[in-house]
Amino acid sequence: MTTTNAAGASIPITVTINGEARDLAVAPSRTLLDVLRNEAGLTGTKKGCDVGDCGACTVLLDDVPVNSCLVLAVEADGCSVTTIEGIAPDPDRLHPLQENFMALGASQCGFCTPGIIVMAKALLDKNPNPTEEEIRFGLAGNICRCTGYTKIVEAIQVTARQMAAAGPDGA
């Protein structure tokens, strides 16, 4: 689908989304969030506040967590984007974070969950053995109105222990 701005111009970009190269034409003012949801059809990334306050739209841009509502799609040209749909290392299995969020009841309404899981993955990739304080600090930009965060932190801690026990080759 080609998106055009008010003047009718669009900018061609190539973005690798969840390991798949995508050629898109986007208006210069379109956010990465809107392009992911509307052009790429990946609706797991949620549109919450649309001003960067809630973290529901968190994705990895070249393995760095970003609020996709604050990134213009044209800024992602040539980059790799990982959404909640691409977080699992194997398309036939959930990521251990996803499994533990379900098993431990770490989500209630689930709206914030994709952004929190993506942020937690980035945290564990950078720090495979975070303390509770480091987890809470790492999730400071992700708002959950339902859970109180206790089970979220627990799910991340359990995942960290499981991944450490599995070693570098297993997840």
TrEMBL record:
Keyword annotations of the record: 2Fe-2S, Iron, Iron-sulfur, Metal-binding, Oxidoreductase
InterPro entries named among the record's database cross-references: 2Fe-2S-bd, 2Fe-2S-bd_dom_sf, 2Fe-2S_ferredoxin-like_sf, 2Fe-2S_ferredoxin-type, 2Fe2S_fd_BS, Beta-grasp_dom_sf, Diverse_Oxidoreductases
SUPFAM superfamilies associated with the record: 2Fe-2S ferredoxin-like, CO dehydrogenase ISP C-domain like
The 2Fe-2S ferredoxin-type domain, residue ranges: 11-87
Family annotation (Pfam families): Fer2 (PF00111), Fer2_2 (PF01799)
Source domain of life: Bacteria
GO MF annotations in UniProt: 2 iron, 2 sulfur cluster binding; metal ion binding; oxidoreductase activity
Signal peptide: none
Xref: PANTHER family: OXIDOREDUCTASE WITH IRON-SULFUR SUBUNIT (PTHR44379)
Protein name: (2Fe-2S)-binding protein
Species annotation: Rhodoplanes elegans
Taxonomy of the source species: Bacteria, Pseudomonadati, Pseudomonadota, Alphaproteobacteria, Hyphomicrobiales
